[in-house]
Amino acid sequence: MSSRLNRALGPWQLMFTGLSAMIGSGWLFGAERAASTAGPAAILAWLLGAFIALVIAAMATELGGMFPVAGGMVRYANLTHGPLVGFMAAGANWLSIVSVVPVEAEASVQYMSSWPFSWARGMYHDGVLSPGGLAAAAVLVVVYFLLNFWGVRFFARFNSAITVFKLIVPATTAVLLMASSFHGGNLTGAETGGFMPYGLSGVLTAVATSGIVFAFNGFQSPLNLAGEARNPGRSIPFAVIGSVATATVIYLLLQCAYLGAVRPGAGGWATLSFSSPFAQLAIAFNLNWVAVLLYFDAFLAPSGAGATHLASSTRMTLGMQRNGTLPDLLGAIHPEYGVPRPALWFNLGAAYIFLFCFRGWGILAAVISVCTVISYLMLPISALALRGTLADRPRPVRVPVMRVTGALAFMFSSLLLYWARWPLSGDIILLMLLLLPLYLWCRRQDSWAQHRAAARHAIWFMVYLPTIAALSYAGSPQFGGHGWIPYGWDLIVVAGVSLLFCAWGVRSAVAAPDLSLMDEADDGLPDIGH
């Protein structure tokens, strides 16, 4: 085994990894779940989600251009704030990506359950997969594994080939549904409580937990595969921004088509329930050939996303090993195929754990969304800190008005965490704190002085997590809280507190970052110009 990755990905291939990760199971179910939470205002939820994703992605793009390394998303915090914060941020990030692998398989099987065969219908009941459905999903996860096993070139060719198809099918579905049946009154909500029947809180919660953050999380894939990009300084911004913008158009078309096609009735949008939303709507409007195409794409789209997220999470595992918080074994790379196969096997095992613990798309999508938000928190803090500590470092991408943009990115991340609603927001924060014993075991060889230094740079983060949990507990009932802070004021309080923690986090950064932690030689990569 060697430590060399292959720089084999061009800008379009890199962008297709982002698109493939975004246009997965999210398009199959996201429109329905967003509508059930926000009603017609789900359109605003997608626009707000896209805006927040672009602001946060801008931070990641600047960092990725500066340090085009494998698993970049789990390495920036380690550079700027030491191993403890680095491990916590990396842990949340890794959880948010590796758990997507089984959720894509679950989505395919859930769509399969609406096939007109008794054996298929038995795979999904009451929101969870049956034992037969679990077995089918487990086989699909193995397929994702094999697509990564024989190298990044093989994976990239497969991914590029199917991504174009994955874009055509949802766009075609949306246009045909709108042409077949579009009730414009649905968007105004004249019979179901208006355009915003569940209030602004419904829109905000939809962004956080209905699959919107989950859908846009795919922008991380180009950043985690940056160590295999031929010209990262140009490829990374093209891939990240291009994938988010394209996915936004697709998701808005789908949401409009869903809102216009269904008739919610007296029970409102929250009472609607489909096992395979767009396929069932296509059949209802006699678009049977579209339904067949959707059933096929229900395997293809999630498979591309599942394979992409497995590739991304594998590079994250490699990055965490390079951070010194995972065993050296996981850093070995196959000399012929240039793939970190031990890390790939490790992530396969983790995917199976999530598969058997969370047996429904909706359950796991909400958990993933909150883990994703926590993983975003360190991006603006690291980017802001490096503007001071590495001011002269070349930046192929330079975010304008960084002080304002970075503060907004951290504020949006904090608000997303709050919008996820109590107790889910508190449960995931508790999970992050439970990672501490694992960190201590991985860093058991460190001296007391090293532990003390790591803790000094991490105090702000350790205080931030329970503070947001406490605000979520005390917040308004609209977000699951106990109403001690009135609705409206709770949003202002969370935003203000987040800005204070943003300033504290930037001041807590390492004064002189150790650039050897991000050295390309650390990855065994050739020294190439940009």
From TrEMBL:
Membrane spanning segments where? 12-31, 43-63, 84-103, 133-152, 164-183, 195-216, 236-254, 350-379, 424-442, 454-475, 487-506
List the molecular function annotations (GO) for this entry. Answer: transmembrane transporter activity
Subcellular location as annotated = Membrane
Mind listing the UniProt keywords for this protein, alphabetically? Membrane, Transmembrane, Transmembrane helix
**Pfam families assigned to the protein according to its UniProt record, in alphabetical order:** AA_permease_2 (PF13520)
Q: Which GO terms describe its cellular component?
A: membrane
* Membrane recorded as keyword: yes
- Main localization, broad class: membrane
**Protein topology in the membrane:** Multi-pass membrane protein
The protein here is known as APC family permease
Q: What is the lineage of its organism?
A: Bacteria, Pseudomonadati, Pseudomonadota, Alphaproteobacteria, Acetobacterales
